[in-house]
Amino acid sequence: MVSIFILVFAGFALVKFGIAQWRAIWITTANQPLSESLQLTAGIDGARVGATDFSTLINLCNELSPDLKKEEPLAEGSVGLLPGG
Q1: Rounded distance, CA 37 to CA 29, Å?
Q2: Could you tell me if 82 and 70 are in contact, meaning their C-beta atoms sit under 8 angstroms apart?
Q3: CB-side exposure of 84: number of CA atoms within 13 Å?
Q4: Which residues contact 4 (CB under 8 A, 6 or more apart)?
């Protein structure tokens, strides 16, 4: 009985740590400034980057790497993470 409690507690702690780590990574990434060359290329004011600039950045990404552009993210039951999958 004690071993099951330890296993459940360890699993819960692992999941909680994983969620906290995932949040920390996203917060750290979100706080990174855009490079000056990206701002100039996309035509975005670095001091006022907002949700309206998302479509501009996506269009720039599609222009620079057209092979990554897909018509449907999860086409025909594929996971979308593996090529041809």
Answers
A1: 18
A2: no
A3: 0
A4: none
60-70 per-residue burial string, b: 16 or more CB within 10 A, e: under 16: eeeeeeeeeee
Taking CA atoms, 77 is separated from 23, 32, 43, 70, 71, in Å, by 29, 34, 37, 14, 14
pLDDT digits (tens, 9 = 90+) for 22-68: 999 999 987 787 788 877 887 877 677 777 778 888 888 888 777 76
Helices and strands per DSSP (H, E), number in the chain? 3, 0
pTM beyond 0.90 = no
Give, as one character, the DSSP assignment of residue 81: S
Question: For 12, how many CA atoms within 13 A lie in the half-sphere containing its CB?
Answer: 6
Q: Is 44 helix (H, G, I), strand (E, B) or coil?
A: coil
Look up residue 55 and give its two tokens.
């479509």
